[in-house]
Amino acid sequence: MSTLTARPIEDYTAKDFKSTLKPIWCPGCGDFGVVQAIYRALANIGRPPHEIAFISGIGCSSRIPGYTTAYGFNSVHGRALPIAQGIKLANPDLLVLGAGGDGDGFSIGGGHVAHVIRRNIDMTYLVMDNQIYGLTKGQLSPTSQRGRQTVSSAHGSMESPVNPLLYVLGYGAQFVAQGTPADMNGLATIIEEGIRFPGFAFINVQSPCVTYGLEDQMLKAQKASMQTLASMGHDPSDRLAAMGLAQEYGEKLYTGVFYRNPEPGPTFEGLAKERQAALKGTVSSRADVLNVFKLKT
Amino acid sequence: MNTDLVIGMAGSGGDGIVSAGESLLTAAALEGYHGVMTKSFGPQIRGGESSFKLRVCTHKVLNSGGTLDIAVALNWEDFLKFGGELPVSGSTIVVYDSNTNVAIDKIPLVGVTPAEVFAVPFEQMARETGGSDRAKNTVVLGLMAGWLGIGKEQMLAGIRKKLSKKGAEIVDKAEKAFHAGLAYAQAHPLQQSRTMAEPEKPTAKFVVDGNDLCAAAAIVAGCDFFSGYPITPSSEIMHFLGREIWKYGGTMLQAEDEIAGIGAVVGASFAGKKALTATSGPGMSLKTEMLGLASIAELPLVCVNVQRGGPSTGIPTKSEQSDLLQAAFSAHGDVIRPVLAPVSAEDMFGVTIEAFNMAEYYQSPVIILSDQEVGQRKETAEPIDASGVKIIDRRRPTEKELEKYTRFRLTETGISPVSHPGMKGGNYLASGIEHNESGAPTASGEMHSKMNDKRLKKFNPLKRRRDLFIIDGSPDAPLALISWGSSAGLAIEAHQLAVKAGLKVKLLVPKLLFPVSEEIYQDFFLSIKRGLVVEQNQQAQLYRLLRMYVDVPRGIETLAKSGSNPITPSEIVDRLRHISLALQREKQHDQSHG
């Protein structure tokens, strides 16, 4: 358990995390369910809103921090992860959440995912994966299926989709899960587990776009097709089994925890703290740094 | 007796050229001399040609000087590759290794006849004393100590210290190599002595370079976080902080790319910490979106651009000042980001402290425009005392303000208190999207105007800060000399020479380049008829920037050269002399026709 969640738990309800801003999302958007699940998870965790930093990029889903009472940062496209890491390293006591769409996380910001994972910075990153660019009105996204026709692919996509689950498992992620607002309880539980995981947690959320999405992605269709990994008897400590299941991304909708490292590795900020403690005694004040310019005879 | 000498030396990578230059500078600095040393290399990762140019003075100087007083060529091929970077004139003493088999009257210097030429058997002396040709640089040091009359004891102490781990025999050989050089100097006295006069103050100096001093100043300023990506010629800032910042409770993150580097810095600043990133041209191009984000989110941060030749990859190892317009106008939107430039490595201390204070006070990114020259040259400095340094922290909300907190409150000054995560009651949404006073996203044109006004007007007091300018000379002088950054180190010296020569010229060096302080320039230009703007870029970027904001007198000319093409104080004085003559002719013309 991370240092955050080890603190005394105060009594919070989901309402305490809901801001007064009215979402800009289309009626029926999957993201409404995601934000509700976040409220519930945060209430269970019990950290006060002012000790939470919630960072996003750009896109429909990236509006999400503003709909919570946490300190929010709706930043620029694709850069939620670097900003979130800076926040966590500057103040490791904060509970840090990151969020964005599949374009934010796996297209424009795709280069950052591998690195937050290998640093194992203790934060939870939710990707609201809807296989489309909704905010810019319906272009191909990195998770769009080959052949899909959109305004930017009038004759059909000529590219294979990214497999977010397999990517992050390949990068060495220690907590990988998938959820859907079609199963609110399940999603809230996964988010809570992700937050409690002492390291970087990746959660892919199948959050349908009601305006540009395909029929089989809608909540109703998801409800019919989803299978929980628990019901399948999947052992989340088995990384290879997780990778096998993740291969079926795009064909099967599995929800729950794919992989949770039973022996989580060190976090960057934990190692930083150790290094700071080890070197602290070597100086007495900030002015001491100038001693390096003194010449020695 | 000499008060100001320039020594240049070139050879191949394995010759220990740079370490010889550093030994000489260190020895001189310990005796109280001032000096500036630049190094230059070929593009090879290892080996290749290598050189240093060291100016030793009895007083503080701000550039590595013009033509060489002593030129040392360990081989001619490498020496000649540096061209104008190691300029030889009729007053230069040329020393080269006789193993090059070049006759004294056949040295390959075109169009100059040096004052004296010595073919010294450096390699042979090194082998006979040090047992290996690797001691060549030590022989050269002995020779320099002999001719200059400085640093003998300090350099011998340095040799002993550096080699003591390798055993008494090695130390003994190195000392013998040094003494061989010294004996050569005694046996070959110069026709015109190059012995240095006593230093103005015989107290030991610091030796600094702009990159290291920037990093150290950041720590003094209260910086707790650095993130950046390796790039020449700025990486030493990251290296330094990677060693030091942890001791002060801070964190260094080598980011996966330039964008992530500044992104993490934006995050750390949002979390309430002072944060720094550093880069050079290509990285600066990548960072611009984040600069815009920090501007609209009103988050303090400092971004150093150690300029090199551009555009694109350009010339990564050579200095240039061609990113001024980029710094002033980087990122889209109606916005101001302060740009500061140090005039020397020593100046980097004050400029970095100022940058952090400015960033915190105005809640804005601040760009430091350094360059490869300032960043990487070694320079003596008076010992720096950090005790009197004034440190400014961002205005945080009071407990009363936190009762009903409004992050982007429209205040008279444009500055509104900023909270950070962990502060109860301070919760708000930071964003790159336009927002209202509470931070909620808005697309209202009216609110956009108000927020733009807030973000622009907060810098008004900055434009009146005369302490960010060096202004020198008679207030009614008709000639202007303007320069910035490392070029200013040349202009300041040229100004002194020009005044001594009787020219009526006054000097202006802005350390704050943007926003342009219109009133300060207008006041300065009141008496000005003609003048010169000196800078190391092809387009005369400062001159053009000034013309955008200020009524620049028509008689102002430019001395602007692309990076690594030398500009010298005497060249500046020559131009000023011409400009002065033209002004006199104009006056005579006016009188005869008036």
The figure for the number of domains of chain B is: 3
CATH top level of chain A?
Alpha Beta
pLDDT < 50 runs, ≥5 residues of chain A: 1-6
Q: Termini distance of chain A? A: 52 Å
Numbering strands along the chain, what is their spatial order in the largest sheet of chain A? Answer: 2-1-3-4-8-7-10-9
Topology of chain A as a string of helices (H) and strands (E): HEEHEHHEEEHEHEHEHEH
Query: Biggest interface between protein chains, with counts per chain?
Result: A-B, 59 and 72 residues
Mean pLDDT of chain B: 96
- Briefly note the CATH topology name of chain A: Rossmann fold
What is the level-2 CATH architecture name of the largest domain in chain B? 3-Layer(aba) Sandwich
General description of the model:
The complex is a heterodimer of chains A (297) and B (594). Chain A is α/β, with parallel strands linked by helices. Chain A has helices at 30-45, 80-90, 102-108, 110-119, 164-171, 184-196, 219-225, 239-246, 268-280, and strands at 52-56, 71-74, 95-101, 124-129, 132-133, 139-140, 175-179, 201-206, 227-228, 254-260. In chain A, strand 5 (132-133) and strand 6 (139-140) form a beta hairpin. The longest helix of chain A is centred in the first third of the chain and has 16 residues, at 30-45. Chain B folds into three domains: 4-187, Pyruvate-ferredoxin oxidoreductase, PFOR, domain III (Pyruvate-ferredoxin Oxidoreductase, domain 3); 211-381, 3-Layer(aba) Sandwich (Rossmann fold); 465-593, Rossmann fold (3-Layer(aba) Sandwich), CATH 3.40.50. Chain B contains 19 helices and 21 strands. Chain B has an eight-stranded mixed sheet with strand order 6-5-4-1-3-2-14-7. In chain B, helix 4 packs across helix 6, helix 7 (210-221) crosses helix 8 (235-244) and helix 16 (485-500) crosses helix 19. The longest helix of chain B has 25 residues, at 569-593. Chain B is globular, with a radius of gyration of 26 Å. Strand 2 (71-74) of chain A pairs parallel with strand 15 (429-431) of chain B, so a sheet runs across the interface.
